[in-house]
Amino acid sequence: MFERTELNARNDRTQALVKVLFGVMTVLLALPVLIILGMLVVRGGPMISWEFLTADPTNGMTEGGIYPALVGTIWLVSVALLISVPIGIAAALYLSEYARDTWMTRAINLAIINLAGVPSIVHALFGVGAFVLFFKFGTSILAASLTLAIMTLPVVIVATRESLQAVPHEFREACWNMGATRWQTIRRIVLPNSISGILTGVILEVSRTAGETAPIMFTGAAMFLPFLPQSVMDQTMALSLHLFAISTQVTDVPEELPYGVALVLIGLVLALNAVSIGFRTWLRGRKKW
Amino acid sequence: MSTVIDSGDADRLDAAWWIDRIVKVLVFAGGISAIVFILGIFAFVTKEGFGFVLKDMDVVEFFTSPNWRPTSDTKPTHGILALLAGTASITGFAMLISVPFSLGAAIYIGEFATGKTRETLKVLVEMLAAIPSVVWGFIGLSIMNPLIIDLFDVPVGLCMLNAGLILGLMAAPIMTTIAEDALKAVPDGYREAAEAMGATRWQVIWKVVIPAAKNGLVAAVLLGVGRGFGETMAVLMASGHSINMPEGVFDPVRALTATIAAELGETVAGDTHYQALFTLGILLFAVTFVINLTADLVVRGIRKK
Amino acid sequence: MVATSTTSKVSVRDLTIRYGQNAVLRNASFEIPENEIFGIIGPAGSGKTSFLRALNRMDEFTPGMSVDGSITLDGKDVQTWRNLYALRRRIGVVFPLPVGLPLSVYGNVALSPRLRGMKRPDLDDIVERCLRRAALWDEVKDRLDALGSLLSGGQQQRLTIARALSQEPDLLLLDEFSIAVDPVTTMRIEDVLKELKKEVTIVLVTNLVQQARRLASRTAFFLNGECVEVGETEELFTGTVQDQRTRDYVEGRFG
């Protein structure tokens, strides 16, 4: 066997040291999540009540609940999903099932990377220029949701493409050989076996969309509105913008109020993420082939 | 069984064929939508902002003056040097902290951690990525601000340090995830070969895995920079948002993105201020486009090998 | 030598198949008569599978694959078909490695009839009939809901045969079906094929020369992309072959 030389011992020490160092770095990265969550729960927790969730904000948004903001966020996210999910799934189907390795495919991939990478405030500017002004939707849920949908499109595309590609190619070959069309193959075999992966991606997108602020600030969300939206052409309040408003724009807000709003927002987002992660783990455990 | 069908009739373009054709067109439309949208973003932001570039912009002033006073009644100026310095200092500071930590975490998660620990750490990193930027901004405002005031005995805690730390935490998950993917892409054969020669884990990582994953790691850092550069709400809330050529980490600064977010609401569509803000948008779009393109080319570099 | 009473189901003329620049089959010409088993033997890489892919027009899904010359099925060149799906529906294919689709056993066999618009109870009939003919019914009749992709290898292979039969094809292509199957199952499937040839034309690609001898009336020998010999199977084994390489192969001197 190897003799335990001086060099070997030094290597082992370095090894141990490095491992501890990197471990500590990882923990330092992960720790803030727990600290932040802890502080939000401790300080915001007492704010949360059924009334807080279902009452209107009152007295210049320094008292009362967050009901219209919550409803507004649901509106914005739902409309955004209605737009981005079909487009995103179509795009993923094209990339996974139809596209060959051509310059067009590369251009689409580059466009997706850039849609994900362009700053949210630039998406907001686009929303203002395109939807609010050019298409004359005005500041409305429709304009804001379109902006959100385009911004979060890459999330759906990437997740869907991944789960489509997880379906083995030989299943497609077998179907094509039977005379099934591409679409029949997709509908009968590919989609049913990737739908849960797609759903995971959609949940992730919901959580991204719910938290966004910059893209909706000038396209459809308002800091304060005395009424609930009646259609997609109305403006609306939103949780994320409400948090921004009461922590920067409104004076004399009780210190705990924004903690409560932040806790609701982050609770919503993290709960959706947890569902998505749990779903994914469950999927990995299932075996169909 | 073998009913002989007239082959002329068998070769009919039936419903299934037509449906397949239609779906193909729809799906293709979905595929190119990403290109349409990215071109649309460029076109509309340019359309709204280009009036300023043609009419009012003084190129020298724009890039060299630290004075951003678009609303001055007497003499509006549109110098972005201070804004650039603000964005650069915050992003730079964030990267200074975040790059080593993220790469360290990626190596730990990818190469050292196993089983439950690994899964837990990955979930925590994912949760870090999920926190909305407005919540980060709120944390900078309500938790970090008093903390910095107490710890360093300074009058205000909304500053480059605050925004930089927040941004570092925000950019970390994307860097960690992509860096870990890059490490994972290195074939196990490389590791086994080196370990068979008696190298320790760390020697294998340092001498074999990291050099092999170099391009992916560079791409990870680039995307982290892009993320930091474009972040808006958190920076707006935590940086102090005052126009300033920063000299130290406790100076309040102002970022390009935050400027748009803070001022667009005050403008009238089409006026000089409005157009100037869209010009900042063109700049942001161009810079992030170049960063993403570079990252993509760098990653493509690995695949070619 | 040629039995003139039978008509040709498939005729192949000057067929050349390429992947990119690389030709895997060159200038092959032969006839496949109706309602018998036509064997294609030859070592790996001789172009047998590529021929099946060309016949089934799978070049549509294979980037870089190009086909020259002609393959006519029932007098119509497959290259001229517009609705390739309708063409493939008439041709059943069984692969070397069975692919049970991630559907139930029932769903696997019912897939093709369903795509043609067939509904229950006709569907139940055809599923049972096809499973019986593939000699699988007795083993799976109590678990038609089980996942087809989780059956054993031999069962999956018979499932794919049942699935191919559910297309009600008039041409059945088998590509080295016995690779993943035990000898007993192989014999059972061979019996099935002998039955089937009364109604369906069968092309049997195999690298087991004895299997071709047992089943095929006529056999072609492919070698390195060349169709070396076509003739009555027995003649390949006993009689006059024109090419020394054929004799070497069937007598096991290489391959």
Defining traits:
heterotrimer; A: about 290 residues; mainly alpha; MetI-like fold; 2 domains; about 0% strand; B: about 300 residues; two-stranded antiparallel sheet; 2 strands; about 75% helix; flat
Q: Whole-number radius of gyration of chain C? A: 18 Å
Number of strands of chain C: 10
Biggest sheet strand line-up of chain A: 1-2
Q: What is the mean predicted local confidence, pLDDT of chain A?
A: 89
Q: Shape of chain A, please?
A: globular
End-to-end Cα distance of chain C, whole Å, is 27 Å
Strand proportion of chain C: 25-35%
- Return the CATH architecture of the largest domain in chain C: 3-Layer(aba) Sandwich
Number of helices of chain A: 12
CATH class of the largest domain in chain A: Mainly Alpha
Description:
The complex is a heterotrimer of chains A (289), B (305) and C (255). Chain A has helices at 6-44, 50-54, 67-98, 103-117, 120-134, 141-165, 169-177, 182-190, 195-211, 214-217, 239-249, 256-285; strands at 57-58, 63-64. Chain A is 73% helix and 1% strand. Chain A has 2 domains: 6-47; 51-285, Orthogonal Bundle (MetI-like fold). Chain A has 289 residues and is mainly α. Chain B is mainly α. A two-stranded antiparallel sheet of chain B has the order 1-2. In chain B, strand 1 (68-69) and strand 2 form a beta hairpin. Chain C has 255 residues and is α/β, with parallel strands linked by helices. Helix content of chain C is 35%, strand content 27%. Chain C contains 10 helices and 10 strands. In chain C, a hairpin with a 2-residue loop joins strand 1 (8-19) and strand 2 (22-33). Chain C is globular. Chains in contact: A-B, A-C, B-C. At the A-B interface, helix 1, helix 3, helix 4, helix 5 and helix 6 of A face helix 2, helix 4, helix 5, helix 6 and helix 7 of B.
